[in-house]
Q: What sequence folds into this?
């Protein structure tokens, strides 16, 4: 095996070095882009968690891994060279292990080494003006491991015998699914699980195909299953792409509509329904279109947008600090959020509740800001500063990132020059803060929205409440609060938005509550807004074509949320095309005299996987020739010793009278 | 002499799609012989060899080499089999020395003397790269790599293909050297019948995937005979002649090649009333060409109206 590894290293080293050079180049570009961002103080985070880096690393690892795996097989694609290799007196498993050992070590050289170097650079103080944690390297680790899945996919593509044009690439389908899994997963353990499963299936398929010289028929059952699974994944993608193409080519099938509510400064609410290729429809809650004061004609969307009220809000969470930063493993918000950029200093709010500052010139940490009363890094919910809201604006004004900070019980005004905190508001004894955010009004006055378990209040920077209303409807069913600044200046509207999970759980019965109030006078009006029309997904053509997707995956999408956004929703009518595919599969099985066990297995397979299953079935099977049986005159497959219809043996080749056979006696 | 054949096939059959490349091949190769596996291009020789070595799964039937199922040849069994492929493919980046180092690592019984001897015979430099070698030199290197493990069974797939006469002679001499050891068996396919004639004990002939002959070399040569019949005028039409392979019609002459020439054949030919009838000596090459050529009565290729047009 050592000799095989040495040979592979020698053959593929140039590919690895090329990959190494390309990735170093890409990482250098990323680091330079970060440096420019930092110099311009353009909201820099850490280059380790940069979306562009993830995209580049994902593409690189996938293509590099795939190319390496494919080239290792391709090197011996010539029939005689393959024979020279496999005739060596070691098992094919040992040969394959030698190849994989060398391939993965070269992959580690080409992809792993630059990534490690990049991490070391970011980790070393003085290079990146942002907090560092080892968990931040997990996304890159995931992408590195994804390349290994593509490595096996590339190998499978090279080693298996593909029968029709294009089906050779079927080995890549499962790796593509792994990519989606890596991008969609919330936790890193889910990534590891997905990569381990897809990698194991592909490795098994590679092993089986390598043993059999790429043929399906002579493989063991587990290897056949693995190869079929890989091909099903690819067939699902093929069908999905076909459906998408169909949707593009049938313009009427793409008609969609979606709605939104817009709020004007005078406190009016308008429902805007957007249609494909049509002017949006705008009506108030009574169904009447808004009229332009000057012309008296119905207002267009552009006109209405001139009158929108500034809106700003906060999401609400009363969990631990970790729960409050509920972000996916590849989102930097999970670890820290940029709190403030002031002069040459960057302030980050870390996930452990600490506020840390970095000098953008020296790129080193310059200090922390904390109240001795709060315990940074401790586990209780009250420990540390909680992240401020995902401040959002409604197309009018960007809220200013605050000098306001809050723990779970207290709101502080931060004096950044003196590194001091001044408590301005404290929640009651049995109350706690679930969300907050600061906002600068048009008259340059700063306001603080604070949401506790009991109430929602707007404070000034001295902690005086401009107004306070009960948090009703309450948390956790309603987990997002927004405030609209109306005219005149003491009028407001408050929106209570349902939590998406709670809404789904209730069957979509939770409605958005809007309340109008005047400071000092209390709530004047309260309305539950009707549900908006759902965007897309209600088109007959798309729904019809989606029936071609595998019933098993559609059921999985219906009963599990993991694939909910990837596949089509469950539709019982999908069993009809699946049944048709099962009939075709059954007919082919009978035609080629499949054993009864295989017939039943494939029947179940076709019911579960529908059209993609049938495509996979057609792509893996090697259809034997059929000849007429001289005894029963029926067509029989040539790969059986006896006729499956009448049990007759094959007749010996016809003699032509020129045969010369004699007993052979060695000298 | 062991009774166990080194190669045994039973109804070995291989289809590529609808084409039957090898049909019901039943073959037994005795130990200690040189066995020539003959046939035209596309007759199924390479396919059969690939099945013997487990490179290709048969559509049906089975094969055993050195007593082991060819589809599950253990590494120990493979170590006893030397295999030389027809195109002499090796890793182009390797030097002759590196190729030897690579190969010798797999064979504990690697014989440096044999390797060196063959390399010297072909005049190869140890630092020469494989990609820079001529076809003949590459064949020599492949042969050296195949012979150096001192295999019990040597399977050569058309080893002399496109080699020049000198390289081919060197290769044959190497084979003769190996056959000097009676416990070694050589199974080789070839189109070069002069080489076959020099070294082969037995031959098997495949015709369109079907085994038509399997016998000692001499038996084959003696079984195929050419008879010249002279007539005073144009030769008459041929009746049905048992074992007829080919018949060439000349102006006053008829040349008939047939297999298993016997009394019945002679009687059928005499019924044509030739003036003279004589049996001509036939070399292996002529016998083989007649045996595998187009059956029945034919004229020279340029006399073919289709060719003329």
A:
């Amino acid at each position: 095996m050592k000799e095989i590894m040495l040979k592979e290293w020698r053959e593929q080293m140039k590919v690895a070095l090329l990959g190494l050079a390309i990735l170093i180049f890409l990482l250098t570009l990323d680091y330079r882009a970060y440096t420019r961002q930092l110099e311009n103080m353009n909201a820099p985070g850490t280059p380790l968690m940069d979306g562009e880096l993830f995209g580049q690393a994902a593409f690189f690892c996938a293509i590099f891994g795939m190319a390496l795996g494919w080239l290792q097989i391709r090197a011996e694609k010539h029939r005689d060279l393959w024979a020279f290799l496999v005739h060596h007196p070691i098992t094919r498993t040992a040969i394959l292990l030698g190849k994989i050992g060398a391939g993965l070590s070269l992959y580690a050289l080409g992809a792993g080494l630059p990534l490690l170097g990049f991490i070391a650079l970011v980790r070393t103080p003085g290079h990146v003006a942002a907090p560092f944690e080892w968990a931040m390297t997990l996304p890159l680790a995931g992408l590195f491991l994804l390349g290994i899945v593509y490595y096996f996919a590339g190998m499978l593509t090279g080693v298996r015998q593909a029968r029709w044009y294009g089906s050779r690439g079927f080995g890549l389908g499962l790796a593509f699914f792994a990519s989606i899994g890596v991008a969609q997963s919330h936790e890193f353990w889910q990534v590891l699980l997905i990569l381990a499963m897809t990698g194991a299936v592909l490795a098994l398929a590679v092993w089986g195909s390598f043993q059999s010289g790429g043929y399906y028929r002579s493989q063991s059952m587990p290897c056949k299953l693995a190869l079929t699974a890989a091909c099903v994944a690819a067939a699902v993608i093929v069908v999905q792409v076909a459906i998408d193409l169909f949707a593009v080519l049938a313009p009427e099938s793409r008609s969609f509509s979606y709605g939104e509510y817009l709020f004007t400064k005078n406190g009016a609410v308008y429902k805007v329904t957007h249609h494909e290729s049509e002017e949006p429809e705008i009506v108030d809650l009574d169904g009447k279109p808004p009229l332009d004061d000057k012309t008296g004609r119905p207002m267009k969307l552009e006109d209405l947008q001139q009158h929108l009220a500034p809106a700003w809000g906060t999401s609400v969470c009363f969990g631990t600090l970790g729960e409050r930063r509920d972000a996916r493993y590849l989102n930097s918000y999970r670890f820290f959020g940029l709190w403030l950029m002031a002069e040459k200093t960057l302030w980050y709010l870390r996930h452990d509740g600490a506020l840390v500052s970095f000098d953008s010139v020296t790129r080193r940490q310059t200090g922390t800001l904390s109240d001795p009363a709060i315990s940074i890094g401790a586990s209780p919910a009250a420990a540390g500063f909680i992240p401020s809201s995902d401040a959002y604006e409604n197309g009018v004004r960007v809220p200013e990132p605050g000098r306001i900070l809050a723990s779970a019980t207290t709101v502080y005004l931060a004096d950044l020059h003196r590194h001091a905190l001044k408590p301005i508001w404290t929640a009651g004894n049995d109350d706690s803060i679930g969300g907050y955010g600061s906002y600068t009004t048009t008259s340059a006055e700063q306001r603080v929205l604070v949401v506790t378990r009991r109430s929602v209040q707007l404070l000034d920077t001295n902690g005086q409440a401009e107004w306070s209303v009960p948090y009703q409807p309450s948390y956790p069913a309603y987990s997002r609060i927004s405030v609209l600044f109306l005219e005149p200046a003491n009028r407001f509207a408050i929106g209570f938005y349902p939590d998406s999970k709670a809404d789904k759980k209730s069957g979509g019965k939770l409605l958005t509550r809007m309340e109008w109030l005047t400071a000092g006078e209390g709530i004047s009006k309260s309305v539950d807004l009707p549900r908006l029309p759902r965007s897309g997904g209600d088109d007959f053509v798309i729904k019809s074509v989606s029936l071609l997707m595998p019933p098993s995956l559609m059921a999985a999408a219906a009963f599990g949320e993991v694939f909910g956004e990837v596949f089509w929703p469950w539709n019982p009518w999908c069993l009809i095309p699946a049944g048709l595919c099962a009939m075709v599969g059954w007919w082919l099985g009978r035609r080629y005299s499949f054993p009864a066990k295989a017939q039943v297995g494939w029947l179940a397979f076709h019911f579960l996987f529908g059209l993609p299953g049938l495509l996979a079935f057609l792509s893996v099977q090697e259809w034997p020739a059929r000849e007429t049986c001289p005894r029963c005159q029926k067509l029989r497959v040539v790969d059986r010793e006896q006729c499956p219809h009448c049990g007759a043996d094959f007749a010996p080749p016809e003699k032509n009278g020129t045969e010369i056979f004699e007993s052979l006696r060695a000298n | 002499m062991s009774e166990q054949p080194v190669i045994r096939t039973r109804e070995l059959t291989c289809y590529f799609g609808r084409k039957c490349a090898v049909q019901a091949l039943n073959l037994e190769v005795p130990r200690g012989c040189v066995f020539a596996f003959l046939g035209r291009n596309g007759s199924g020789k390479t396919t059969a060899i690939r099945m013997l070595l487990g490179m290709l799964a048969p559509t049906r039937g089975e094969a055993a080499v050195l007593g082991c199922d060819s589809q599950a040849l253990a590494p120990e069994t493979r170590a006893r089999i030397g295999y030389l492929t027809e195109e002499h493919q090796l890793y182009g980046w390797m030097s002759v020395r590196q190729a030897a180092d690579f190969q010798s690592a797999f064979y504990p019984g690697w014989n440096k003397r044999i390797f060196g001897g063959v390399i010297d015979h072909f005049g190869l430099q140890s630092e020469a790269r494989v990609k820079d070698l001529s076809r003949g030199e590459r064949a020599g290197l492949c042969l050296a790599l195949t012979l150096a493990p001192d295999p019990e069974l040597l399977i050569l797939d058309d080893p002399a293909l496109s080699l020049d006469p000198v390289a081919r002679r060197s290769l044959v001499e190497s084979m003769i050297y190996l056959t000097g050891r009676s416990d070694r068996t050589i199974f080789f396919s070839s189109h070069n019948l002069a080489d076959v004639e020099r070294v082969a004990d037995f031959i098997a002939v495949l015709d369109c995937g079907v085994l038509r002959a399997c016998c000692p070399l001499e038996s084959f040569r003696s079984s195929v005979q050419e008879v010249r019949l002279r007539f005073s005028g144009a030769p008459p039409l041929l009746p049905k002649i048992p074992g007829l392979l080919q018949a060439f019609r000349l102006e006053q002459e008829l040349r008939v090649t047939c297999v298993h020439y016997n009394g019945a054949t002679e009687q059928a030919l005499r019924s044509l009333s030739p003036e003279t009838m004589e049996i001509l000596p036939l070399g292996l090459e002529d016998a083989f060409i007649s045996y595998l050529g187009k059956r029945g009565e034919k004229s020279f290729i340029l006399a073919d109206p289709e060719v003329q047009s």
Q: What stands out?
A: The domain at 7-208 of chain B is CATH 3.40.50.300 (Rossmann fold). The first strand of chain B starts at residue 7 and ends at 16. The first helix of chain B runs from residue 45 to 52.
